[in-house]
Amino acid sequence: MSSIHLLLNTSISPAAYNTRRSMKVENGKFSVTSNGRRVVARATVDVRSPESSASAGKLRSAEVMEAEARVLVGTYARAPVVLSSGKGCKLYDLEGREYLDMTAGIAVNALGHGDPDWVRAVTEQASVLTHVSNLYYSIPQVELAKRLTACSFADRVFFCNSGTEANEAAIKFARKLQRFSRPDVKQPPTEFISFSNSFHGRTMGALALTSKEQYRTPFEPVMPGVTFLEYGNIQAAQELIQSGKIAAVFVEPIQGEGGIYSATKEFLQSLRSACDDTGSLLVFDEVQCGLGRTGYLWAHEAYGVFPDMMTLAKPLAGGLPIGAVLLTERVAASISYGDHGSTFAGGALVCNAANTVLDKISQPEFLASVSGKGKYFKEMLMQKLGGNPHVGEVRGMGLIIGIELDVPASPLVDACRNSGLLILTAGKGNVVRLVPPLVVSEQELGRAAEILLECLPVLDKSMSN
């Protein structure tokens, strides 16, 4: 196995790098000054396997974490683990420790790690053509768009590189449609509705649609004209849509980051009806809950309600960056050349990978297996954990499951990681979020439930502290 091995000629704790620092490159070496102290590091390739260098593994992990503290912007509070390889639903760190992955790269790795068909699609395409930009046609991009429209409500697809970019595009398309469809109206609808506990991304438009104030406040003013309503409040949504000011309503059929809350059929139907009456657009954000995660290919299929646009990203290319907006012909007809674009979007490499992912997860038997495993896992969690006084509701659909706690979930996350299980938080930090690869086995789900049960007592200790 090959890995980057950083050789430091002095040892400085990560905390030291949170102070004033500067970096320059001299003779191929990184020279970092931190509070007047000079540190030099050089990057070399370490081809030793974990087995042959287990004793050096811990040192190598420390080096990677120290280097991260020096050279990356501190936007992530990372867990103290350096992951180096993975297979299926298992991940391994530099010390060779095994982890059962119930995060799937935050609901990204639908086929797990190292799926042979996915690897073949990536390597074969990389050897032929990776990127040409959208100035030219490429076969994998057209094929993926054909498949996405064939298995959805949509007539057209716009490709981008992430979920937040997909929502940015949907914002622009909604504004353009309103202007295009009302040429004689001096001020067409430009405002948006979003909901409590929503998460739509971190770029300025998508951020404006995201409900958590701590995400928005440091960057205000963000895009104006967004009203947040209570998720599920039919009356409030209908009244605001009927005002005639709303260009589009953005809603997650199942909220992921917000705490694994599912919409009701009545709520989504009421949004559809109100938008139809006024000409507002209904946008479903299925970045996290779409593409098989619920046991349906699209989460909204469970409700029988269909949007004007749908945003996708996370699992579509199985770990490579891609985003997409699926839209009806009515919306697409308002978009002209030059209205939007992206250099990297829909490249041949990522689209070929996405075709392989879509081939697998769209199979009825695959979706049925996700649904079955989700029911099994949810029932097991309720049976094993339900008697604990800290555990409230266990909710979700398919393999997007949340366990609500009456205390912060972070001590449980840490304890599970130390016991070989990787899990996420959601909501206000009090929800355990479980979004494993869709190929996870029932045996692996059972093991995850056992580790959660074994680690639950840590919540009592956190309360006493």
What does this entry look like structurally?
It is found in: Mitochondrion. The protein is an alpha+beta fold and 465 residues long. It folds into three domains: 3-78, no CATH class; 99-108 and 365-464, Aspartate Aminotransferase, domain 1, CATH 3.90.1150; 116-362, Aspartate Aminotransferase, domain 2 (3-Layer(aba) Sandwich), CATH 3.40.640.10. It contains 15 helices and 21 strands. The strands form five sheets. A seven-stranded mixed sheet has the order 8-16-15-14-11-9-10, with helices on both faces. It is globular, with a radius of gyration of 24 Å. The two termini are 42 Å apart. The model is unreliable at 1-57 (pLDDT under 50).
Question: What ranges have pLDDT less than 50 throughout 5 or more consecutive residues?
Answer: 1-57
Q: Largest sheet, if any? A: 7 strands, mixed
Strand line-up of the largest beta sheet: 8-16-15-14-11-9-10
User: What structural class do helix, strand and pairing data support?
Assistant: alpha+beta
Number of domains: 3
For the secondary structure, the number of strands is 21
CATH topology of the largest domain: Aspartate Aminotransferase, domain 2
Helix content: 25-40%
| Dominant shape | globular
How far is the first residue's CA from the last residue's CA?
A: 42 Å
β-sheet strand percentage:
15-25%
Specify the CATH architecture of the largest domain: 3-Layer(aba) Sandwich
Radius of gyration: 24 Å
Class of the largest domain, according to the CATH hierarchy? Alpha Beta
Overall average residue pLDDT: 89
SS field, number of helical segments:
15
CATH superfamily of the largest domain: Type I PLP-dependent aspartate aminotransferase-like (Major domain)
